[in-house]
Amino acid sequence: MTRIFKPTKADAWTKFAKEIGGEYVDGGPTENDILKVTYKKWTILLYTDRRSENYTVTIMKVSFLHKKKLKLHISAKGYLSKLLGINGISIGNKSFEKEYILKSNSIDSIMKLIESKELMRLLMQNPYIKLKTIIGRNGWFGLSYPPEISVIHLEYPGEVLERAVLRDLSKLFSVLLDRLVEIDAAHEKNPNFTL
C-alpha cells in the first residue's frame, strides 16, 4: 500500500533523533520544535523558521570556540548569478564553482578546509544549502555572540523530513567541525555557550 500522507515533523525528527542518539524537543504552540544532536563536544541544533505564508527553511546551527576568526559563506548560485557570471573564490573545482558561490576572509584556510573530499561531496550533494560562519553579530539586528564564539549557520529550503537529507546535513556539520579543528581554526572544546 502506498503512503498518501507525508510524516509530520514531530514523527520524522523523533525517529531520526532515536536513530542518531539525539533529542527531539517539542516547542509547543509558541516555540520552535528543536532537534538536538551532540557531536563530540558540540551541540548541533536543528529547527524550522517560517519566513512567510508559503516559505519555510530548515536551519542548523552549532557554536564553537574559534582559534581564527574564519568567515565562510557558501551559497548555491541562483539563475541571476549564473546569468551574470557572479563568482566567488576560485578553488580549482569547476563543477563546484559552477553551482556555488564561496566567500571567505582567508583563502589559505578555505583551501585547507576543502581538501576534504568528504566535505566537498556533502556540499555538492546538497545543492540548495546556504552555509556561513557568524562571528560577533548576525546582521544589523541579529543576535550578538561572545568574541571567542563562532557559529556555523546552515539554511535548507523547506521543512526537511527525509532521513537521508537529515543524515547528510548532520554528517556535513560533523565533517566541517572536524576540518575546522584539523586546520587549526577551531578548538575541540565545549564552547559553554547556548544558542
Q: What topology emerges from the helices and strands here?
A:
Elements: H1 9-20, E1 23-25, E2 34-39, E3 42-52, E4 55-65, E5 72-76, H2 79-84, H3 94-99, E6 100-104, H4 107-113, H5 117-125, E7 130-135, E8 149-157, H6 163-182
Antiparallel strand pairs: 1-2, 2-3, 3-4, 4-8, 5-6, 5-7, 7-8
Helix pairs in contact: 5-6
What does this protein structure show overall?
The chain has 195 residues and is α+β, with helices and mostly antiparallel strands. The chain has a single domain, classed as Yope Regulator, Chain: A. It has six helices and eight strands. The protein has helices at residues 9-20, 79-84, 94-99, 107-113, 117-125, 163-182, and strands at 23-25, 34-39, 42-52, 55-65, 72-76, 100-104, 130-135, 149-157. A hairpin with a 2-residue loop joins β3 and β4 (55-65). The relative contact order is 0.20. The model has no long low-confidence stretch (mean pLDDT 86).
Shape: globular
Order of helices and strands: HEEEEEHHEHHEEH
> How many distinct domains?
1
CATH architecture: 2-Layer Sandwich
Task: Please report the total strand number as a whole number.
Answer: 8
Keywords:
195 residues, alpha+beta, Yope Regulator, Chain: A, eight-stranded antiparallel sheet, 6 helices
